Amino acid sequence: MEQAMPVYILSGFLGSGKTTLLQRLLDHWKAQGLKPAVVMNELGEVNLDGLLVGQSVPMAEMLGGCICCSIRGDLSTELATLIKKESPDVVVIEATGAANPLEIVDAVTEISLYQLVELKGLITVVDAAHLIELYRSQQGSTYRLMQEQIRCASVLILNKTDRVTPQEAEEITVILRKWNAYAEILPAVRCDLEPEALLEGMGGIHAEACFQADEEMQAAHAGEASEAGAEVHGSHDHVMAYTHYFTRPVNSEEFEQFVKELPRDVYRAKGIVTFSDTSSRFLFQYAYREADFMKITPQGDVPDVAVFIGEHFSSRELRTRLLQLEKRILARPAVVKRSL
Ligand SMILES: Nc1nc2c(ncn2[C@@H]2O[C@H](COP(=O)(O)OP(=O)(O)OP(=O)(O)O)[C@@H](O)[C@H]2O)c(=O)[nH]1
């Protein structure tokens, strides 16, 4: 009998470490001689994570919206087309960090009605430092969304444990267990764990816990909306993205300073920039107040671009500041190249 195509869903809040884990899983499968494929969903207009995955892995890109709501209908089509065209051995769906996992589980299950697809599990990556801060304040849509992603997980990766104390890591483990009684909890730094252990420890989808989480979320939203006199929307209509295309290089130190001073409401940013004072281009990442710059030589024609994701921030202000950085370069004499 023909074997069902294993499908994994990668969930977790913005910047928690999903792509970091995805790279590890892909390396693991490739080393086993398997052909993995990826469905990558991004809120922004560009797929920067795709650059990290590399061209050897077949990928369906779903950009500029979230598969759990605005472009949900497309997921079934994209997945079915990818499977038909590439005949992979395994497929991973990387959701946007703002996605409601239940909707994605629903969409994949829908496909399994007419295609031999087996949803193996939902892996949720948790940013330890971010979660503990939200838990302590106990409010906001982000907190509830994280809670939902945790409740629906078949396995939980407690990532970024390097950013919390051992006591805090223990405290978070207790919280995770309270919210999800079934999933194995795997602590990690940069999702560095044994892929075998992760994939084998997966106990399928716990639909009941997931539906309960969804109902609680809907109730919380209904409460919020009636307080505000507004309509009830999806779980993350508070999340917004701004994409900035650079027209010229910027100074590296000024850009680093700009990233450092990003408003707190911007909780995720990533992009590719060319600096006027360095010899290579850089991929920059910013997640929960931590920035990271990596030299990169993108294949093909990749523009200089940055995507900012957060809640209620002013895109106009960001745009003005970035334009100022670009303009300042024009007014400056040539500088000595910095070696980063
Ligand atoms: N300090 C620390 N940084 C980490 C860890 N894991 C990942 N990062 C960094 O966090 C940033 C975000 O990681 P990603 O893997 O891109 O996160 P993501 O969940 O795919 O992000 P989105 O796709 O935007 O939702 C990157 O700069 C990573 O290098 C960790 O364990 N500790």
From TrEMBL:
Can the keyword ATP-binding be found in this entry's annotation?
no
Q: Which residues form the CobW C-terminal domain?
A: 239-326
Q: By its UniProt entry, which SUPFAM superfamilies does this protein fall under?
A: Hypothetical protein YjiA, C-terminal domain, P-loop containing nucleoside triphosphate hydrolases
Q: Which PANTHER family match?
A: COBW DOMAIN-CONTAINING PROTEIN, COBW-RELATED
Q: Which InterPro entries match?
A: CobW-likC_sf (IPR036627), CobW-like_C (IPR011629), CobW/HypB/UreG_nucleotide-bd (IPR003495), P-loop_NTPase (IPR027417), Zinc-reg_GTPase_activator (IPR051316)
Which molecular function term from Gene Ontology is one that the record holds?
Answer: nucleotide binding
The protein, known as: Cobalamin biosynthesis protein
- Species this chain originates from: Paenibacillus jilunlii
Task: Output the Gene Ontology cellular-component terms.
Answer: cytoplasm
Report the transmembrane regions from the record: none
**What top-level branch of life does the organism fall under?**
Bacteria
Per the record, the similarity remark reads:
Belongs to the SIMIBI class G3E GTPase family. ZNG1 subfamily.
| This protein's record includes keyword Chaperone | yes
Q: Name one Pfam family in it.
A: cobW
Catalytic activity line of the entry: GTP + H2O = GDP + phosphate + H(+)
Supply the alphabetized keyword list: Chaperone, Hydrolase, Nucleotide-binding
